[in-house]
Write a structure and sequence with these properties.
The structure is a homotrimer of 346-residue chains. Chain A has 346 residues and is of the alpha/beta class.
Chain lengths: 346, 346, 346
């Protein structure tokens, strides 16, 4: 990263520029952490007081900023500092990344029956099995395994060491992070009277619709005989477990370390915060939100907002979590009442 | 999948066949989700009313079914629809899977001192280190690493990217899913007075007895100087963590994202539901069950059924989880009592 | 492992030796589990009664031991049995492990612009990308991927299948266990009014200071534009998730399956027990401890000791967890009071 103010102006097209800085911008930091040579930004009015004291050399500010200028910085006045920052980050990312080279790396092992589009890229030491389809502009990085009959959609990206079991279908524009395992056997056994667990065959598959992102080291089990399906645009964080036959709606957010047990359905736009657990065979209505570490054991109507385990409506949970700390006090108060009652001659 | 009714009859040997369907069965689905060309089944009397309205073209029904027939479907009357379905799934799985080719893939790196049975299969890009033993009919898929002195038992299957650290012993008939790491260093440090943590050497190992299944991306630490041991027939779901020196009994079920801290012992047939945590150095008696997200911090006698964190006996936990929602009400009732008491002249 | 008493004496330099054993020591076990041919030890005065009944053939005992001798064992009296045991384990480990061979394995793919020190070791099938620096005596085992511009410090060890995304910096003397993914994209999206989530570019990086250990299958996200940083000497157990921009202090202990959400800061010496969750954008003061399965949702001052979710001070949490079981009783007592009040004519 190495930008002059002129280059930033050309890139971000600010509405106005005030002050100047003649060096090069080498990093991005918060207002408080920025040092000389850094660019910073005001995206949250809470931090408006930090602008004038920031050590940053370039500041992205909204038109609404009416505080003191910072004498050693160039001020770029933009419609939306967050968007401008995002634009700059994207540019830095673009410059840093070398596009994947189309074609199959000589060390990749691609079955003769697999079909890899000429614009797709298969990285070193990948193993691509029979009857696989890899679509245009898809990128499969090092050490991935793509099982028999899998499909990887257009422009999808598999980071290193992704493991797709047989029949997995990845839509277009998906991103799968390192170490994710998709399509593995569902956890299903028939237990006989002697207590032994006999494995049930799982002949279904996992389908990721377009634009899904799956975090590092996630695990998604394939269905018993139909589909485990993740809806378009759903974003899954790291270390999430999704059981067999789960159906996740579109544009859901599933934060790190969530677990969803088998056959459960999530409507569109559901948000599960970190470490949430969801029981099997239930339904969570569209637009529902579950706070971190919550546990959902029964159906939720659409737009539910719940917290706690087992989950309660948010307001009740908040009230409970406050009163919970006063339970010792409540015991004492009841003891007092009992004592008073007794001294009353009861 | 592509079965005529005649082929299904030959495979499943039903006690009776009613109605007919002249096409081919292409999928399996629940009674409600089935479409023309699907096979469906009645395994739970709850769904008996769905039979007559199902769009399925073939129905597996128990002899006890006395509802209306579905006019467009062939009805196969079997002793146990679940078992018949399992048999069909197994057949589909068998047809789809190509048996692993015996022998060592030319890209696999096998140390000269390792012993690989002639009927075993070592996949592409595997690394098998010194003094390893791979038994008959074992299958080690792509990108696995098998550390020094490991043993993989007869007919065991390692999915891609399994990582066995040194001295790990896998019994016969085990299945290890993609990305599992077995035998890694236990989490043990000696902390000196200045707060620094010094790593303790772990010279023990992990032993998986026969018939164990380990889910994708699980981690099982080796013992400090003896064994971490998983009993025969125990089935472990994805993303489970098992600490050093843990001893798990036979035929346990350990569901996804469970964590078991070091030196804890589980008796036979223990069931830990999803996201359960178990403290270190405790003992959970045989046949015990812990409900999802529970936390067990002290010994449990055999056949305990507990819930919550810290765990309580199930009946108490259920009662508590109901009453918990009425805690705000209880505070109000105590306030009322106090007010009444006060107005009584106390 | 195969030590005579004479060899043990030479290695451990005990202050005194009593009794003798003329065979070879083949294993190490606890006092109760030891069999003939095993060495055992007394490191916890709780177990002093087990010494005389132990089947061990060699016993490491403290000078303070004044119980009965065990007639068939050699007794080695040492200043600190734990330290002596650690010394022995280290020796066993040293003997068993073959030092990594310096140099680049012929199957490793190392970019021409990467710089690998002559004493470093790059294992089979590794992929090392552009502008990487691998320092002296670093060891990178099989199937690792080291992304563009990463640095691996002196004497650090990457176990098999570690995945470093671009720009990750690993200090000196670090250990990264199998399957860990470091530097992956932070979980950050801009959600538009139609509910669609647009990925935010993450141009920051992950920095591990010296002496950090990262457990198997952990995931650590890189920062949006600055750093996710793990302080020197911090030890991270398996399956831990650390979000973007998190700053972890020095010498922290982060136990298995912990999740820390984005932008949170941990002071030095913080201990997070297993399955703890920490919310984003908060600060946990130095020396704080969070009990297993706890949830921290707001700032904690230094040296806090908390438990529960949301976390409470330990004493309050302990009191609450005891009283919680008596909530049904409390309801009954309040009902009784209400009945008595009513019968009093209220």
């Amino acid at each position: 990263m190495d930008y002059s103010v002129d280059q930033l102006v050309a890139l971000l097209q600010p509405r106005a520029v005030r002050g100047n800085f003649f060096g090069k911008i080498r990093g991005i930091a918060s207002l408080e952490q920025a040092k000389e040579g850094d660019l910073s930004f005001l995206d949250n009015p809470r931090y408006v007081a930090h602008v004038a004291n920031s050590q940053a050399s370039v500041l992205l500010l909204p038109e609404s900023y009416d505080g003191k200028p910072q004498p050693n910085a160039a001020h770029l006045i933009v419609a939306n500092p967050s968007l401008a920052l995002g634009q700059l980050c994207k540019e830095v990312e673009r410059e840093r990344s070398r596009p994947a080279v189309a074609g199959i790396h000589p060390t990749a092992l691609v079955d003769a029956t697999a079909s890899v589009h000429a614009t797709a890229s298969i990285g070193p030491y990948c193993v691509v099995e029979a009857d696989v389809l890899i679509a245009a502009h898809a990128v499969v990085l090092a050490h991935c395994t793509v099982g028999p009959r899998c499909r990887v959609g257009e422009s999808s990206l598999l980071h290193p060491k992704v493991c797709l079991y047989q029949d997995t279908e990845i839509g277009a524009g998906c991103i799968i992070h390192g170490g994710a395992v998709i399509g593995c056997d569902g956890y299903g056994y028939a237990t006989t009277e002697n207590g032994m667990h006999h494995k049930l065959a799982h002949i279904g598959r996992v389908v990721l619709e377009d634009g899904v992102e799956v975090g590092a080291n996630c695990t998604i089990d394939r269905a018993r005989f139909a589909e485990t399906r993740i809806g378009a645009g759903t974003k899954i964080d790291n270390l999430v477990q999704i059981g067999h036959n789960v159906m996740v709606g579109k544009s859901c957010l599933i934060v790190a370390q969530v677990g969803i047990a088998g056959s459960t359905r999530l409507g569109d736009g559901v948000v599960l915060a970190g470490q949430v657990g969801v029981a099997g065979h239930i339904s969570i209505g569209a637009g529902s939100q579950v706070a971190a570490q919550g546990g959902v054991a029964s159906n939720l109507p659409p737009n539910s907002i719940v917290r706690g385990t087992p989950a309660m409506p948010l307001a009740l949970a908040n009230r409970y979590f406050v009163l919970r700390k006063r339970i010792p006090e409540l015991f004492r108060r009841v003891e007092n009442l009992e004592r008073e009652m007794a001294s009353d001659g009861h």
